[in-house]
Amino acid sequence: MTGFPLPQSDLSAAGLRAEQIDRLVALIERHIAEGRYPGAQIAIARHGSLALFRTFGNATLDRPADDRTLWLLYSNTKVVTAAALWVLAERGLFRFTDRVSDHVPAFARNGKRDVTVLQLLTHRGGFPNAVVPQKAWEDHALLKETVCDFSLEWTPGSKLAYHGLSAHWTAAVLIEALTGQDFREVIRETVIAPLGLQNELMVGLPKAAMARTADMHEPAEDGVRPIAENNTPAWKKAGLPGAGGYATARAMAALYQMMVNGGALGGTRLLAPRTLSYAIRNWTGDMVDEYMGMPMHRGIGPHLRGTTEGIRGLGGFASPRTFGHGGVGSSYCWGDPDSGVSFAYLTNCRIPDPWHSLRLDLVSNFVHSAII
């Protein structure tokens, strides 16, 4: 694993309290010993260097994980897809205040004409439960028809409710309309490859990379069991834009380093600071996300900590400007522009709340309390 864009450092040089990171490591080791999840990977970066990268446990029930293992990101993928749209907007292909139907005219069906890209990506589009069938994963003409046929559940902009898959399938159709290319290739060309992360961050896996993946699991009476539908070649290849990316933890920490560093990573500038300032802004105030049951302070991709009493995944101790995203029941990645720290925590078991959110608060707070 050579040529990674972040040079190796250590906790001391990065200004991180080793005793707090030791507590984090012990917590993860205890989780694995208890059978909570087969394996995990974490990475911490600061000021353009990788301070910690560590792999734990197994990728599958019978195969150890290693530093090359690719972990299913679930909804962490949403930030990767959003980043491609940030780049396309900076290139002048569209504006976030545009209507989706300005670029995909058929999307106007069923009352959706006035849904803006900003509403779409901040989970105010009005169709949180719309479904794309598996047969449309590779048939993108069918994908476009399916998305354009989505029906509204409420007036766009009037509510905030997490669109688990529907918004980012729509974003994929928008990307293809803007570029004339497969959305997976656009994400690779605009974000992943320029940052030098193409071997460790993928939305749509090539066949050669599939053997590196960790299986995703769920709790069972006798421990954990694989989630069959999330471990198939078809799932891995599809690269669901809101749920199907794969990465190493250090690749996600590097992606967030780019964001906390104002759009640059390892000498490569991907975006302007003002573009990021626009994208990673609290566009929804303290509106309660009806799915999450709390204010989520949505940006165009990540969400922010804000100053509410609680927040999902980012850690209660986080600076109000800390931003990030999670993967359902399994993971969280975030960046803190006030300290320059980025962090990725990836596991391979989808565990329901309340345990999931409680452990995320502990995990993230160990990192926040390590920052000097």
From TrEMBL:
Domain Beta-lactamase-related: 26-352
Signal peptide: none
Protein name in UniProt: Beta-lactamase family protein
Domain of life of the native organism: Bacteria
Classification via SUPFAM superfamilies: beta-lactamase/transpeptidase-like
